[in-house]
Amino acid sequence: GAVVSQHPSRVICKSGTSVKIECRSLDFQATTMFWYRQFPKQSLMLMATSNEGSKATYEQGVEKDKFLINHASLTLSTLTVTSAHPEDSSFYICSAWQDYGYTFGSGTRLTVV
Amino acid sequence: DAKTTQPPSMDCAEGRAANLPCNHSTISGNEYVYWYRQIHSQGPQYIIHGLKNNETNEMASLIITEDRKSSTLILPHATLRDTAVYYCIVRVAGTGNQFYFGTGTSLTVIP
Fold it and tell me: Cβ contacts (< 8 Å) between B41 and chain A: which residues?
């Protein structure tokens, strides 16, 4: 089946630094990918839609200058958390559409200290 | 996208069928019902989806009422590994359409 690979699975960074998370579709092309954030004991919240070759679209309330999204190829989307702060600590998950439904990455646990 | 309502939690005895309900009374004619589950600290996993007819695959069965305002996901023989949060989502099929998650149902399978 379709696989979406997400890297890294876990990252710890210092407050004020930036962190890049990669999302790759391994055996299919994805013109659109989606990025979610999930806080403990909460549901997944859609952050943005990543479009290959064009600007991402962000959900209301998500800071586009803080969460930079780049979708430079049909198999790779990246999310960069800029100037990270402890409140950005969360579980970040990407997904892409494949045939009949969405396939999700395994997630990235970001901890900002 | 239509909003869905699910019970926050359910228990099921191991080996028994788990029946997870979902209400989606405002679903429109071209919206599918999708079910996903999320095991702790993992990405969501696709289970099944349907439009009007009941569906069955190797993981589960999906029963959609005739008026399409509600559905039930059935795990025929629940195992401990089925303990997870189950999400019912309705949306139009096709790439580019956003997927919004509700609060889901936390299913605990009890030995």
Answer: 91, 107, 109
What's the helix, strand, coil split of chain A in %, to 5? 5, 55, 40
Q: Give the gap in angstroms from C-alpha B66 to the nearest C-alpha of chain A.
A: 22
By the 8 A CB rule, do A84 and A110 touch? Answer: yes
**Which residues does chain A have within 8 Å of residue B38's beta carbon, measured at their own beta carbons?**
44
* Residue A35 Cα to chain centre, angstroms: 4
Helix (H) or strand (E) holding A10: strand A10-13
Residues 6+ apart with CB under 8 A from A36: A44, A45, A46, A47, A92, A93, A94, A95, B101
Whether the bond into B21 is cis, omega within 30 of 0:
no
Assign 3-class secondary structure to A62-111: CCCCCEEEEEEECCEEEEEECCCCHHHCEEEEEEEEECCEEEECCCEEEE
A5: its two tokens: 């690979």
What are the tens digits of pLDDT across the range A55-105?
999 999 999 999 999 998 999 999 999 999 999 999 999 999 887 789 999
Q: Is B42 within 8 Å of A107 (Cβ atoms)?
A: yes
pLDDT digits 0-9 by tens, A2-56: 799 999 999 999 999 999 999 999 989 998 999 999 999 999 999 999 999 899 9
Helix (H) or strand (E) holding B22: strand B18-23
- What would the two tokens of residue A102 be? 């969405």
Q: Give the Cα separation of B98 and B36 in Å (integer).
A: 15
